[in-house]
């Protein structure tokens, strides 16, 4: 039969419709309106929920003084100085002089030892799957050659025109992209002492924030735009919906970019790509979320923090496990010094986390929250820190290995992947141990990650009873937590 070389109109429409539907299924052709009802329906790129662990980096002119009283953020040095915090002012006057301007720190921020490839290798060795760098903090200094930054302050106020005399953002982005990690940028919406911010906030948004964000995104094409400093105005005043519509519809990363929830004083845990917490002990959400915190208290490097102010590797790993079992990610911060060196204690902690991940990462990466996030031992389960953040990382030790008298511990954390269940144990018990509510198939295999031996088990009314011989303790290297892998579980 002879056929026309041209498609019929009906066939063309059918093919176009199928193609367009398929295109929409991957989120690549959808158009988003500048309102939360539309923006919040955008799917989150799948890699984020699989990643579980990222590295936050706070670095800028505040890394020169690198000082704050314990329990305060060193990256807020300019704010403490200008708001007459007695301790910060006394320190500043003694070390730099009473009339020494914060803006001089831009010249002293040299980054002479900055080796972005080494940074990237270290973060990859830690088991991180993504990196978020402070492209600009509340002091307005940009770590890339941005004209708005210097124009606003009528002085060189970016990393190419002063200090390092190099594009710090580009260098790290290039290094990270040589690995399998994703690259994101923190960006502060407001700036404490930007003259335009102080005189005309509407013009600040239109003439400073919008062009600056578009410059950052267009030049460096991030996987994440991590907003902060949003609490001074509503999302309407920030024009956040309009900015996100540009990100999702027109930017060069419209198909892959994702954002957090810090887009106005009324948006946290309500709108945005994923929710964020900060120094929170526990959190649950019906949406992907992320906890951010420092290894000590400060995000920026704080020379005033001592060894005892840093969380141990055990504490950090147990925090990660607690967060992942609750469906979240951990964004753990490091603060390099002004020369670009990551403090050795931070390097050590990252490598210790990475060593644990090499054995137990199967129970972290790509997992999802199970029907039970964890199980309690006998005792009271209402232990809480005195106030949020006041306990540092000790809250997780109190909830696991060092309880106060009369209080229960989380003796097992659960994650799942397909028909596989993982029970992560802060302590490895000897003898009989019950995993409550676990219903395994008859052909299920139970083993400890890091060991080739299988674990004997039996079904009981309350769950799965394991038999852990004492010699396991001698065969396994001591770990901050141990993972029991159970295959072929029943999901009900």
TrEMBL record:
This is alpha-L-fucosidase. The keyword Signal applies. Pfam families: Alpha_L_fucos (PF01120), Fucosidase_C (PF16757). InterPro entries: FUC_metazoa-typ, Fucosidase_C, GH, Glyco_hydro_29, Glyco_hydro_29_N, Glyco_hydro_b. Keywords: Glycosidase, Hydrolase, Signal. Residues 28-362 form the Glycoside hydrolase family 29 N-terminal domain. GO terms for molecular function: alpha-L-fucosidase activity. Signal peptide: none annotated. The keyword Signal applies. It is an enzyme of class 3 (hydrolase). The record marks 292 as: May be important for catalysis. Alpha-L-fucosidase is responsible for hydrolyzing the alpha-1,6-linked fucose joined to the reducing-end N-acetylglucosamine of the carbohydrate moieties of glycoproteins. Residues 411-486 form the Alpha-L-fucosidase C-terminal domain. It comes from the Bacteria. Its EC number is 3.2.1.51. One of its GO terms (cellular component) is lysosome. Belongs to the glycosyl hydrolase 29 family. One of its GO terms (biological process) is fucose metabolic process. It comes from Pedobacter hiemivivus. SMART domains: Alpha_L_fucos.
